[in-house]
Write a structure and sequence with these properties.
Structural class: alpha+beta
Distance between the termini: 53 Å
CATH topology of the domain at 18-34 and 85-157: 60s Ribosomal Protein L30, Chain: A
Shape: elongated
CATH class of the domain at 18-34 and 85-157: Alpha Beta
Strand order of the largest sheet: 5-4-3-2-1-8-6-7
Helix content: 25-40%
Radius of gyration: 21 Å
Largest sheet: 8 strands, mixed
CATH architecture of the domain at 18-34 and 85-157: 2-Layer Sandwich
Strand content: 35-45%
Number of strands: 8
Length: about 170
């Protein structure tokens, strides 16, 4: 029993101290978009990708697939508020993009540079292609996520529903 308590305490400490690595890939040429979260890399890996225009969640535990299912899309009030709860550090972005219209490529380059002033990004690499023959975007972004702090923020935001039984007086 004491050993089990020790393992639970160790797990909680690790959740708050060891960061997970998130990798987001968007490639319009190969029509690929996925997000991979890994924590203690061979231990736990979660991959969220698109299949038939639906998000597909795959969970790996020690490189064995233990869960593979299409996610149900729920209506949420604000997806931006959900992103604010994620505690990220060491954000790096590598972006290659090109549009047939040079003006749009220039606007995209300026917009990405402007966004770096609003979002704390550790490293940004842009490779705009002003002579592109066809439109394309390739983005690879990585970040470290503190799972413990993120989960506590999500739990704090969850609405608490109390069921109060009302007494009916006749």
């Amino acid at each position: 029993m004491l050993f089990l308590l020790f393992l639970v305490i160790l797990f909680v400490v690790l959740v708050f101290t060891v960061t997970a690595k998130a990798i987001f890939i968007l490639n319009t040429v190969s029509e690929e978009m996925n997000l991979t979260l890994s924590w203690f890399d061979p231990f736990l890996k979660i991959r969220i990708g698109m299949k038939d225009s639906k998000p597909l969640i795959t969970v790996f535990l020690l490189h064995m697939r233990i869960f593979n299912k299409a996610a149900k899309q729920k209506k949420r009030k604000s997806k931006l508020s959900m992103l604010k709860t994620v505690k990220t550090t060491d954000i790096t972005i590598s972006a290659d993009y090109g549009f047939r219209d040079k003006f749009i490529t220039g606007l995209a380059c300026g917009t990405v540079s402007f966004l770096t002033q609003l979002i704390p990004i550790s490293f940004l690499f842009q490779n705009p292609d002003f002579w592109a023959e066809k439109d394309y975007i390739r983005i690879k972004a990585t970040a470290k996520i503190n799972i413990g702090i993120t989960l506590t923020k999500i739990i704090k935001q969850m609405p608490i529903k109390l069921k109060i039984k009302e007494k009916q007086y006749a």
